[in-house]
From TrEMBL:
Cytoplasm is among the record's keywords: yes
One Gene Ontology molecular-function label: calmodulin-lysine N-methyltransferase activity
Keyword flag Membrane: no
Gene Ontology terms: biological process: methylation
Localization: Cytoplasm; Nucleus
Organism of provenance: Gossypium armourianum
Name of the protein in question: Calmodulin-lysine N-methyltransferase
Length: 210
């Protein structure tokens, strides 16, 4: 899947997925990106620390904000995009009013702040979908591989943005026997993960293509 391919990880945190791909798959290049400059410094440290494991694979960190112009010089250049847990919990303005109005009478600033967060979530999903379309290579085969829980209607709203950007997607629930069995254990009374529930905790596999 990754051999001889150009790969970018979005919202990577400290870059575990990207580092693993670089060390084990003979990818041509792996770019490990995040929007936080301090985190990007940590990524660089992790790359330098593990450089002996990468063979001929080029590995580099990148500060990448999904709505900024620096994305443009990478347009349509990656064979594979990977990301995990990049779809955030969404809150609609209507649900904010229904849920919080009894608690916020006389506190309009809090209502405005909550509605602003709802707008942020909408733009967040829009920016992630747009940068996915922008980075996927064309012409030629390319795909984005995301892992994310549903989180209410958050994943659905993100996938609506994916469709609006002219991309296709598929969702797979059971993609690894060991992970699925662990999920079943947690759903059936295993208390080793307090508060575990499927909607917010179980990662679905989303594959996005042109």
């Amino acid at each position: 899947m990754f051999r001889s391919k150009r790969v970018i990880e979005l919202g990577s945190g400290y870059g575990l997925a990207g580092l693993t791909i670089a060390a084990t798959t003979e990818a041509l290049e792996v770019v490990i990106s995040d929007g936080n400059p301090q985190v990007v410094d940590y990524i660089l440290h992790n790359i330098n620390t593990n450089s002996g494991a990468f063979g001929e694979t080029r590995v580099k960190p990148m500060k990448l904000h999904w709505n900024e112009k620096e994305v443009s010089n990478l347009s349509h250049t990656f064979d594979v995009i990977v990301a995990s847990d990049c779809v955030v919990d969404d809150v609609s303005s209507q649900s904010i009013e229904t849920t919080y109005s009894p608690l916020t009478r006389g506190k309009k600033s809090l209502c405005y702040e909550l509605k602003a967060k709802s707008t942020f979530f909408k733009e967040f999903h829009k920016d992630l979908a747009q940068v996915t379309e922008l980075l996927l290579k064309k012409p030629g085969p390319s795909e984005a591989i995301f892992f994310s829980p549903k989180r209410g209607n958050s994943l659905d709203k993100f996938l609506e943005e994916i469709k609006d950007n002219g991309l296709l997607f598929s969702i797979t629930e059971i993609y690894d026997t060991e992970i699925w069995n662990r999920h079943q254990q947690l759903m059936n009374g295993d208390e080793s993960w307090p508060g575990y529930e499927k909607d917010h905790c179980y990662p679905l596999l989303i594959r996005i293509t042109r």
